[in-house]
Design goal:
This protein has 380 residues and is an alpha+beta fold. It has four domains: 99 residues, Beta Barrel (conserved putative lor/sdh protein from methanococcus maripaludis s2 fold), CATH 2.40.420; 82 residues, Elongation Factor Tu (Ef-tu), domain 3, CATH 2.40.30; 54 residues, OB fold (Dihydrolipoamide Acetyltransferase, E2P) (Beta Barrel), CATH 2.40.50; 88 residues. Strand 13 and strand 14 form a beta hairpin. Helix 2 packs antiparallel against helix 3. The radius of gyration is 44 Å and the shape is elongated. The protein starts with a helix and ends in a 9-residue tail after the last helix.
C-alpha cells in the first residue's frame, strides 16, 4: 500500500509538471528551421529564348516536271543523300542520249580536222624547203600555206564544237540528276508538300526537313551583360519543360537590338528531351564567384514588395522568432542568395510554419529534409 501511495504521488507531480509546461507554451507555435549557409557562389540571372534546329530547310525541286515517285512522308527520318522524290525524266534521258551521240561525233570530227591540219602543215613545210631550191613556184607555196591555215581554222572550229556539245551534255546531265530530289543533310521530314502526279515547277518546295542531332538555343540577353562577349569560355545551364542540359559550345552575337535592348546568345546542345520550337530558359553569370549567404527558398517570405525571414533566437530553454528583412540576390537550386545585416553563417531560419507566424515564442525543431540537401551547382 505504501508503494502504491508513492507511485501515485510521483504520477501526480509528473502530470502537474506537464500541465505547467503546456500552460507556459500555450502561445508558442511549433515550427521547423534550417541553418543559414555561407558559400562561394556566382550570381546568375534567368534569360529565355527559343530552341531552333541546327539545320532546317525547305527542300525545293530544281527542275520542273510531273511527280512520279514520293519516297518519304511526314515524320520519316532521312540521311544525307537519301532520295526523297522523283519527277518524270524521260525527255531529259532522251536529250542526254542525243547529246552523248553528238559529243562522240564531234570528237571524231576533231580527230579528222587535226589529221588534216597535220597533213597540210607537213605539205607546207615541204613546199617551203623546195622553194629555197627554186623547185616550186611562189604561187604553189602560197597556196600550200593557205591550205595549212584553213586546216588549222577547221581544227579550232571542231574543238570548239566538241566543247560546246560537252557543255550542253553536262547541263542536260545536271538537269537529269535534278529530277531526283535528295536530302541535303540528315534529319526528319516535318512537312510534305508534294503529291504523286502533281506538277512541280522549278523552285517549288516539296519538303521541309530539320536536323535532329543538334539544336541551338537562341537566348535574349540584357545588354547589361555585354561583358559575356569577352568571356573565353561559357557554360550555360538550360531547361525546357522537364529536360535539363548544359551547353559548353556558346556563341555571342555582338549586335544589340535597339528596341529590346538585348543581344543574342546561341548555345548548341544535343539532348533527346528538347525539340525545335520549344521555349527554353538559361542561367547566365553576372559576375565572378563571391562569398554569399544562402537560405532555403521555403524560408523566404514576401509581403508588400519586401522580403524577410524568421530567425530563431535561443535564450536558455526558450526560443523566439525574430523577423529579419533580407535582400534577394538570386535563386539557386531550391536555395536563395541573400544580403542581410543581421544574419550570419549558422543562424537558424524558419522553413515551415512561417506563413502566418508572428514574432514571439516558438518551439523550433530541425527541418531534416532541407538540412540534408546541400546547395547544388545545378539550377532548377
Amino acid at each position: 500500500m505504501a508503494n502504491l501511495f508513492f507511485r501515485k504521488k510521483r504520477l501526480t507531480k509528473s502530470l502537474l509538471f506537464l500541465s505547467l509546461m503546456f500552460i507556459s507554451n500555450v502561445h508558442a507555435q511549433v515550427v521547423r528551421y534550417s541553418e543559414v549557409v555561407e558559400k562561394e557562389e556566382q550570381e546568375q540571372i534567368r534569360v529565355v529564348g527559343t530552341l531552333k534546329a541546327y539545320q532546317t530547310a525547305n527542300i525545293a525541286i530544281s527542275e520542273s516536271g510531273l511527280v512520279t515517285q514520293v519516297l518519304v512522308n511526314d515524320g520519316d527520318y532521312v540521311k544525307k543523300g537519301d532520295q526523297l522524290l522523283k519527277i518524270d525524266d524521260r525527255r531529259l534521258n532522251a536529250q542526254v542520249d542525243q547529246l552523248r551521240a553528238e559529243h562522240a561525233a564531234a570528237k571524231e570530227n576533231l580527230k579528222a580536222a587535226e589529221a588534216e591540219f597535220e597533213r597540210a602543215k607537213s605539205d607546207y613545210q615541204a613546199y617551203l624547203t623546195s622553194q629555197k631550191n627554186n623547185a616550186v613556184s611562189k604561187q604553189q607555196l602560197e597556196r600550200s600555206r593557205a591550205e595549212a591555215n584553213s586546216a588549222k581554222a577547221n581544227m579550232f572550229a571542231a574543238k570548239q564544237n566538241v566543247d560546246a556539245v560537252k557543255a550542253s551534255l553536262t547541263l542536260a546531265e545536271v538537269k537529269l540528276a535534278d529530277t531526283q530530289l535528295v536530302a541535303p543533310f540528315s534529319g526528319q521530314v516535318v512537312a510534305r508538300h508534294a503529291e504523286l502526279g502533281q506538277w512541280l515547277s522549278a523552285g517549288d518546295t516539296a519538303f521541309k526537313v530539320t536536323s535532329f542531332d543538334k539544336l541551338e538555343a537562341w537566348l535574349d540577353v540584357p545588354e547589361r551583360l555585354s561583358h559575356l562577349k569577352h568571356s573565353e569560355a561559357l557554360s550555360v545551364p538550360l531547361q525546357s519543360a522537364s529536360a535539363l542540359a548544359t551547353s559548353n559550345k556558346v556563341k555571342v552575337i555582338n549586335q544589340i537590338d535597339p528596341r529590346a535592348r538585348t543581344f543574342k546568345v546561341i548555345a548548341e546542345i544535343s539532348h533527346p528531351g528538347f525539340m525545335p520550337g520549344m521555349s527554353v530558359s538559361a542561367w547566365l553569370a553576372t559576375n565572378a564567384k563571391s562569398s554569399t549567404l544562402m537560405v532555403p527558398k521555403d524560408a523566404l517570405i514576401q509581403r508588400g514588395g519586401s522580403y524577410f525571414v524568421y530567425k530563431v533566437n535561443t535564450d536558455g530553454d526558450k526560443q523566439s522568432a525574430q523577423s529579419v528583412p533580407v535582400k534577394v540576390k538570386f535563386h539557386r537550386s531550391g536555395w536563395v542568395a541573400i544580403d542581410s545585416a543581421v544574419l550570419v553563417n549558422g543562424d537558424k531560419v524558419v522553413t515551415e510554419g512561417n506563413e502566418r507566424l508572428m514574432p514571439g515564442p516558438v518551439v523550433a525543431v530541425p527541418d531534416t529534409q532541407v538540412s540534408s540537401q546541400p546547395v547544388s551547382e545545378n539550377v532548377n
